[in-house]
């Protein structure tokens, strides 16, 4: 009788008795000490019939001992020779739902250095790409403080800035909605100095002028939940504040590291730095959204670069909720002079 037949026979047999257990222990001891052995050699060492030794081997294999046959020799392996194989269902990567949206940040409208040409061009691209939602990661308007009052386009005060924002922020007739947060700096200067909810006031002023496409969604950060058929993921829009780091990727890395267990989002959109960067620290898709403001005198003094542009983000969400495909398209722009000189690559 072959060992495979002995295993099949054992599966239908009753629970082994004490004599069988004692014999199985002897088999393990002999194979570990002297193996590999032929079936006859093993039976002789046990002082039993070959069939009895074969049944003992079958019981050990059924109990998941690494009893193997190699060229008619029986041995007890001390190593796991073959790893487990897991088959990933590829349907999860295309049977779910695709999301596509625009991302902008730090537009700083009402500043002399704001790039409305860039912002309008981005919205033209979003419109052509049939994007209907743009997430704005903060500092939609310039704000006002001691060191930037000469950078403003007109009279001081949040009323003038709010009206300029409402009249000049890009609007498209195909239903694009911009959902924006406010930052602790710039807009936050008015909040701290005058106690006004500047984000709500920006939206209110836009609505008074007939605009329904500008929606304030929170101060400093807000979370967007993405529900699937059998689960969900979530995205955080954040304007973190603080100074610039020595490396572009440092802020998203440290921000993700600072999240406590259970509050780590699947996607993190960051404003404030005026830089573009894409990363994946701690399995979080991070995007620094750049800006649409040229380098200001303050930034030049601090030797800070302005990466002017915006993003298109696309990702796939599986039916169980996880984000399993993710891509970012960065749309860069250059200084005003590049376009004013009628460069041959000009498209706007």
Features:
13 strands, Arc Repressor Mutant, subunit A, five-stranded mixed beta sheet, 348 residues, single chain, Purple Acid Phosphatase, chain A, domain 2, alpha/beta, 2 domains
Structural class: alpha/beta
Q: What is the H/E order? A: HHHHEEEHEHEHHEEEHEEEHEEH
Identify low-pLDDT runs: none
> What is the CATH superfamily classification of the largest domain?
Metallo-dependent phosphatases
Number of domains: 2
Rg calculated over all Cα atoms: 33 Å
- Tell me the distance between the termini: 84 Å
Extended strand count: 13
Query: Order of strands in the sheet with the most strands?
Result: 6-5-4-3-12-13
CATH class descriptor name of the largest domain = Alpha Beta
- CATH architecture tag of the largest domain: 4-Layer Sandwich
Largest sheet: 6 strands, mixed
Name the average pLDDT: 89
The percentage helix is 25-40%
Question: Can you describe this structure?
Answer:
The chain is an alpha/beta fold and 348 residues long. The chain has two domains: 3-76, Winged helix-like DNA-binding domain superfamily/Winged helix DNA-binding domain (Arc Repressor Mutant, subunit A, Orthogonal Bundle), CATH 1.10.10.10; 90-340, 4-Layer Sandwich (Purple Acid Phosphatase, chain A, domain 2), CATH 3.60.21. Helices cover 31% and strands 22% of the residues. The chain has eleven helices and 13 strands. The strands form three sheets. The chain has a six-stranded mixed β-sheet with strand order 6-5-4-3-12-13. The chain has a five-stranded mixed β-sheet with strand order 7-8-9-11-10, with no helix packed on it. β7 (221-227) and β8 form a beta hairpin. It starts with a helix and ends in an 8-residue tail after the last helix. 34% of the residues are buried. The mean pLDDT is 89.
């Amino acid at each position: 009788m072959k060992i495979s037949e002995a295993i099949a026979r054992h599966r239908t047999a009753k629970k082994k008795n004490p004599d069988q257990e004692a014999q199985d222990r002897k088999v393990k001891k002999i194979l570990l000490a002297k193996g590999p052995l032929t079936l006859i050699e093993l039976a002789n060492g046990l002082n039993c019939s070959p069939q009895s030794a074969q049944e003992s081997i079958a019981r050990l294999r059924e109990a998941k001992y690494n009893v193997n046959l190699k060229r008619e020799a029986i041995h007890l392996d001390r190593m796991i020779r073959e790893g487990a194989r897991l088959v990933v269902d590829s349907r999860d990567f295309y049977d779910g739902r695709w999301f596509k949206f625009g991302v902008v940040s730090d537009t700083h409208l009402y500043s002399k250095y704001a790039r409305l040409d860039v912002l309008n061009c981005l919205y033209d691209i979003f419109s052509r790409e049939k994007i209907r939602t743009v997430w704005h990661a903060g500092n939609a308007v310039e704000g006002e403080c001691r060191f930037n009052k000469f950078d403003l386009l007109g009279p001081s005060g949040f009323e003038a800035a709010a009206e300029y924002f409402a009249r000049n922020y890009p609007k498209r007739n195909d239903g694009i909605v911009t959902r924006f947060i406010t930052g602790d700096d710039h807009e936050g200067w008015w909040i701290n100095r005058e106690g006004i909810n500047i984000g709500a006031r920006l939206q209110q002023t836009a609505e008074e002028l007939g605009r329904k496409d500008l929606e304030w969604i929170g101060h400093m950060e807000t979370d967007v939940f993405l529900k699937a058929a059998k689960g969900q993921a979530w995205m955080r829009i954040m304007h973190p504040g603080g100074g610039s780091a020595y490396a572009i990727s440092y802020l998203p890395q440290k921000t993700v590291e600072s999240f406590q267990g259970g509050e780590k989002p699947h996607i993190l959109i960051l404003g404030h730095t005026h830089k573009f960067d894409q990363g994946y620290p701690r399995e979080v898709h991070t995007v620094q959204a750049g800006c649409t403001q040229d380098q200001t005198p303050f930034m030049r003094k601090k030797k800070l670069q302005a990466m002017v542009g915006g993003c298109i983000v696309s990702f796939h969400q599986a039916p169980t909720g996880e984000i399993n495909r993710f891509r970012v398209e960065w749309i860069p722009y250059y200084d005003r002079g590049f376009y004013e000189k009628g460069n041959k690559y000009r498209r706007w």
